[in-house]
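Q: Could you write out the predicted structure for this multi-component system? I'm mainly interested in how the pieces pack against one another.
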Amino acid sequence: MKTVSLGASRPSTVNFRMPTRDNLVPIRVDIEVDGQRYRDAFTWNPRDPDSEIISFAKRTAKDLKLPANFVPQMLQSIQGQLAEFRSYEGQEMQIKEKIVPLKIDLRVNNTVIRDQFLWDIGNLDSDPEEFARTLCDDLNITDPEVGPAIAVSIREQLYEIASQSVSVMREKQLSKKGRRAPEFSSNSKAVNNAVDLFKYFGSKGSVIRKRKEWYLYEPVVDVVANEEDGKEEPNNSSRPKKRAEEEKVASLQSL
Amino acid sequence: MSPPAAGAAATSGDGPPSSPRELYTIPASSGWFRWDGIHETERRALPEFFGGAGGAGFGTATRNPRIYREYRDFIIARYREDPARRLTFTEVRRALVGDVTLLRKLFAFLDASGLINFSASSSSSGTASRQQEVGVVVEAPVGLQVTPRPPASYFAEEKRGGAGEERENGFRLPPLTSYSDVFGEWTPGKVPICGFCGEECNDEKFETLQDGFKVCSKCSKSNNDNKEEGNKCPGDKKESVDNHASSAWTDAETLLLLEGVLKHGDDWDLIAQHVRTKNKSECIARLIQLPFGEHMLGTINGKSVSRLHMNQATDGKMNQHITKESSSHSTEMVDGMQIDGNEDSADKSVEEHPPTKRRRLFSSMDATASLMEKLALLTTSSSPDVVAAAADAAIKALGNENPQARKAFRLSEREFKTKAFASNHAQQIDHKVGNKDVEMHGRTGSDKKQEKKFIANAYQVRAAVATAIGVAAARAKMLADQEEREMELLMASIIETQLRKMQYKIKHYEELELVMEQEHATSQQVKGSLVNEWLKVLEQAFRTGVSLPRDELLIKLFLNQSTA
């Protein structure tokens, strides 16, 4: 067997995108009009023409029986988030192997799921949706909204990390001193404390986790009884179905 | 997954975690697996670990063969702790440090190759032998149990590879949505769909028939054409529209018809009873119109039959109707010189049946009607001699095929001879058919004769068809010959032109050569004079004793020139 020299893989720069296989942007909408509140999360393909947003907003409002004055707000919210994504798009970001722990803490309808796992943001072949689906299959979660919620949550975290890496790149270019060591720049922000590769992947380390740490990286699923919900969301009278962490991936996008 | 092969058992005696020798079953296709090595299959399936595509080069910290083996061995060992239980990825990943995306790929590979979870589903047989002491003791997984996979995956896989890549060449297609909107409102009511052609009627003009059957303007026009055609036959003007409506087959009726055909074979009375809403002839006509109608009947009857054959075989009445069709056609085509009585009797023959029925047949028998028309057209498009020859051949062939046919034709021939048909050679066949029909009508009163007439008519129709086809073939041959001649002619002219072109080119080149030669001669002259001049200069220089500064150079040049 070959011994492999450790050290960071060669970083490559690409134009900004989601560090996943499908370049889908997580969108979270949370608007309140006349005492009614609408919260939603889904993914959106930034390559889609913007004219689709309005039809999506209209359709959503119609499906959920929301009043029509939700539509412009939804439109605004989605467009704003897409514009933010696109503002990053012209810039470059570094793609290199970096394994970060992602945390999931969601409540979807009656399911509460907590989880932690490691994600390589340099792996452009990753697929949060597939991961979430496997998770739900394995845990036998039947609520169809859980999987998409997990996927969106993963995407949001990846999006944040990616956008931070862009701003770090920009900073580096601006302050031409070039003195900033890459370690420093990557630590400068709250870029998640990346896993110490050497510790686990070095010739002395082991990728098998210590048994006592297993519980940290294990999904925990709780099913909450229905009665609790009413108390938690007193202002959600008009739409009892939408709750705190409820998310819904637009069925359009996943088709 | 292939069934567990008896021979393909991997012993894990030298395997790391579980020390006692155990026998595990893996599929035969995964026989390559060795604890102490990495097979090519693994390298191909997971190139990330081996510096292939998708990985960031060979020696990355988290992806290398050593890490791969560590992952792999752990997962397999973990599964073998309890082979009857299905190992899930979620269970595995909590114990492994690494990118979950990569781990999932690895896990999926092991799962697919049967190295894990192979005997999990067929757990009952494995339970007896599995309980052996295993080296590693692990607590029971929390919150995990053997579960069948949920059948419905609730979000479809997104396949949008390459959508994210920005094209560099500046050319971008107009943006299109990356999804298909299956939840969009389906508005079939907005644009009416024509019941005949199946297309959407975009313009406002469409007719609605009695039973809600919509017809677009294009179809209704052709429909009217049909009506006009029909109007020539007296007495069925009114019925035409009604029958069009009632002759439209719904899907349910067609289904019933097919059922009936399957059940009753070619007993059309029973089939019509089965369909209920349509009568016998309509059923037959419909089945013929269906794209596979003939094929079906052919298989039912145990032999493949042509359309006309089938008509004859299944229902003699059909023939009668077709004959009527052709007879009325012929009367239409005959010019004013035709004998009056002929036309009268033709009409009479039409009116023998209730007009509605005839009309209905006409409308639903479109395919057959147009066939006859086409045949007539084909027949008229060729010269009379060809037609006569073809008719003879057709009759002879039919006679050879069936002695009865010969008899029928001999009979009709005699009648034919009594009639004078000096002109209109071209329409001879149609006339013959029509006239004979008429003659028969006029002459035969008894039922027996009627019967005979039907048979005769049937053969005549066949003869007519054969004739027409023969004529068409002859004509096609002629046309082909002509085309061939033309092609030859064109080819010859092309070759000629090419030759001329070549000649011109040669001429041009000759001229060019001449010019070149002249230029060569002049350049030679100039060269000579130049040499002379140099000689003079040198002579002078020697004579005066002055050495030129560029002397050597010049001499060298001169020498070079002369040697060259």
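A: Regarding packing and overall arrangement: Chain A has two domains: 21-90+234-255, 93-224.
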